[in-house]
Amino acid sequence: MSKITVVYGSVRGNAKAVAEASTQLLSTLGYEAELIENPTAELLQAPDMDALLICTSTTGQGDIPQNLVGLYVDIQDKFPMMTGKKAGIIAMGDSSYPNFCGAGEKFEELMHELQSATVTRLTIDATETREPMRDVKPWLTEWAESL
User: Fold this and answer.
1) Looking at residues 16-42, what average pLDDT do you find?
2) Which residues belong to any copy of the Flavodoxin-like domain (predicted)?
3) Average pLDDT over residues 20-42
4) What stretch of H or E contains 67?
């Protein structure tokens, strides 16, 4: 069974809640899912990690939340290739702001640069979705089955 590492960047706690619920859902589906609170670039090199799930909100002008920016910079500095590993991104934001889901876009570009086997992104608009797990559950189930 695939091992999935889950990380999150959250400003008000919504992305954290989605990451926690996603970790539980993946475990229920039979995957080995682990939520990492303080991730570093080294986690991408773990030989037993098959996939990385990034749950992130966007702050400021399309910026990555403070608690995830360290991982982003660390990955850029160390550039650990993700050849053969898959990435999923749950990008959360508010479409009334410029640079809607900019943090998710930045991680998507970075995962492509690291040559991730596949990169799939779900975008959740807070102006349309009050309960993000309604959108996340079917997407996450399909994403996990593709591993």
Assistant:
1) 96
2) 4-144
3) 96
4) helix 66-78
Non-local CB neighbours of 135 within 8 Å, separated by 6+ positions: 122, 124, 129
Predicted TM-score of the model (pTM): 0.96
* Whole-number average pLDDT of the chain: 94
Read off φ and ψ for residue 121, nearest 5 degrees: -125, 135
Residue type, 90: I
Distance CA 86, CA 117 (A): 5
Identify the CATH class of 3-145. Answer: alpha beta
Please provide the DSSP assignment of 41-102 as one string: GGGGG-TT--EEEEEE--BTTTBPPHHHHHHHHHHHHH----TT-EEEEEEEE-TTSTTTTH
| pLDDT-above-90 percentage for the chain | 85
Which residues, in sequence order, are CB contacts of 17 under 8 Å at separation 6+? Answer: 10
User: Amino acid letter at 31?
Assistant: Y
Q: Supply 52's token pair.
A: 């990385």
Give domain limits for the chain.
3-145
From the number of C-beta atoms within 10 Å of its C-beta (0-12, 13-18, 19+), residue 44 rates as: buried
